[in-house]
Design a protein that fits this description.
The structure is a single chain. The protein is of the alpha+beta class and 70 residues long. Helix content is 34%, strand content 26%. It is built from two helices and four strands.
Length: 70
């Protein structure tokens, strides 16, 4: 039974996340030859302040820079 966990930063449209997990399930089934009903896919949406890339969290990365050009 394949299990796929997708971690994404929250804020995406629910319908898009639903379509994604369905597409991943179908792809895994096809590529591994596993019956579709045995494939498990779940998505975890993480708050931007809890997701870091390098030394900055995603909310810091998308915040306007202080003292920007004028």
């Amino acid at each position: 039974m394949p299990v796929v966990h997708i971690s994404i930063v929250e804020g995406r449209d629910s319908a898009k996340v639903k379509a994604c997990v369905k597409a991943v399930a179908h792809t895994v089934s096809e590529m591994l030859g596993a019956p579709l009903e045995t494939v498990r896919v779940y998505a975890t949406q993480v708050p931007a302040e809890h997701w870091a890339v390098g030394g900055k969290t995603k909310d810091e990365m998308s915040a306007p820079a202080e003292g920007g050009a004028q």
